[in-house]
Structure formats: structure tokens, C-alpha cells
Write a structure and sequence with these properties.
155 residues; Rossmann fold; 6 strands
Length: 155
Amino acid sequence: MRVYLVQHAEALREEEDPSRPLSPKGLEDIRKVAKYAEKHLHITVGQILHSGKLRAKQTAEILAEHLRPPKGVEAAEGFEPSADPQVWGNRLSEAVENLMLVGHLPHLGKLAGLLLCGDEGRGAVAFKTGCILCLEKDERGCWSIQWLVTPEILP
């Protein structure tokens, strides 16, 4: 089973727009990542879940245009920046279907630390806006990093 953790793409500052939509650079970055993912990474997910915040929703929708998850895109609870990572740690321990989760820091970093090291306080992954981290759970329930793609490393 794989889970893809995605930090939303770059958003406008709150002073520019309180709803914090994706910035022009953020839109460009996530489109580039989504096209690359479709063409080269062959990601298959049943569903893309996001925090419900506009910047995460827009990121998830752009990814869905390219990855076409059968169950679509949906807001889910427990992805807020300060949410308890143990909630999704528990859900993912039971999951059998590949999922993509689009969220925010520090939650994503804590969730990655919990899955990979058993400790949400461990800085296991340095997330960047618009990145996709692929984690895989083996038959023993242990998670490992398969790859990480950021907008900056793509042509």
C-alpha cells in the first residue's frame, strides 16, 4: 500500500487574499508536478483527500486532473496544520488502498515522522510546497520512503 503526502503548492499571503488561493507560481509548479507524475511516476490512487483549505483543494484538484482517481477528490478531517498526526497514522495503518493526502505543515512533517520513525517529533522529511512524497507500507506494516519529487528538480 502506498500513501502520497503532498504539501499544497505556493499560496498567496494572507495580506494579498485572506482565502489564500494558489499563487501564479504555485499553479505553475503543481501543474508541472502533476504532468510529470502522470507521465513518469504512474501513480494510482483510489482517492485524493485534502484539508478543505482553498490552497490544498486547488492543489488536489490539479493533481486529480492528471491522476484521475476513481473516487475523486474530497475534503477530509484531520489535515489542518495543527491536527494530531496520530489520527491519520491510525487510519493509514488499517488502509489497503493507495491514497493521496494533500495538506500543510507542520502536520505533514509530523505525520511523516510518525510513520517513518514512530515519533512525530522527528524531522524525517523536509517538505517543500508542491512536493509529492511517496511512502510504502510493507507486509509487516513498516513504512519506507520510495521517492520525493519537488517542482524545483523537474525540467
